[in-house]
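User: For a benchmark we're assembling, each entry needs the component sequences followed by a predicted structure for the full assembly. Here are entry 17's components. Please fill in the structure.
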Amino acid sequence: MSTSNGNPIAHPQVQLANARQYVGAYVVSLVLMGTALWLVDRHLGSQEQLLMIVTACAAGAALVQAYFWLRLDFSRTQRWITISFWLFVPLFIMTVGLTAWMFSTLYTRTMIPALMHPAALMH
Amino acid sequence: MSQIADPDRAILWDPNHTEHDMIETRVLGFWLYLLSDAMIVAALFATYLVLDHRMNTAGGPTASMIVHPVAAFGVTVLLFSGMLAYGLAMAALKAGDRRRVLVWIAVAFILGLGFLVVEGHEFADLVQAGITPERSGFLSAFFTLVLYHGVHLMFGLLWLAVMAVQVWRQGLTAQVVYRLLNLKMFWFFQGFIWIFVFSFVYLTGTLHVH
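Assistant: Structure for entry 17:
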């Protein structure tokens, strides 16, 4: 963080831009999202398989955009932006994952039986 | 004896000090703000995943009844194209070409606006059909999550317009450049978040997981 402010265009943050990489990431992201859509729309697989595929496609697209659009790499310019992002990721996953897990457990143990067995509601 | 400094004469900092790079520090600061904003998205995703269950529909529609993945892919193309357009504006900035920066910002604006118009139409249809946020816990979570992203896009469009005016009037000065870089992160981050909204709201919503 000691770059001169003389010419803002010469700043490393500006010089990170790369049109080819942007176009490449765009194409790959759309192909991954399109593939997931095609498989889900045609129900080509079980629920669990499709869920896995959608997750894999989302992870792939996220990585591609993170690297080629947000430029999250360990270069001197981007190092701290990348480190802060990777420190953030576990917090994000824990917030979403632990909440979903806790409530799925709650549903299973306390509320679901009647819904899972609608006949039980008839009595 | 201690001397009392004259506040009118004391030099408390060196205005020409170059140790800290203004662009770098402001970009990093804004990035940290974006990550904190993303924690709100995490909370909304967590809420959505919890409430995306028959239990929370109160007899109303489930996800599979209200999401249209093919239409959602259409807005995904619009959104990613808007991201690409802004990326090309950054490539033009790298070349110092102010006119091309403006052209690509305008293209990004139009594509982002297209995304919001189509999304707005989708939600207007839901409301007209009586599918409103207060209908059930699930719908509250669905509307909040998707529209939270939409509101970000709205602010992104406003920011794009402001930056177009600044680039036009002030040129590619250091102040304008750091704002363009911050907008780049903000704009790209909306595409990044949309990957998860599209995948785990629109695509898995049709799978009848629960």
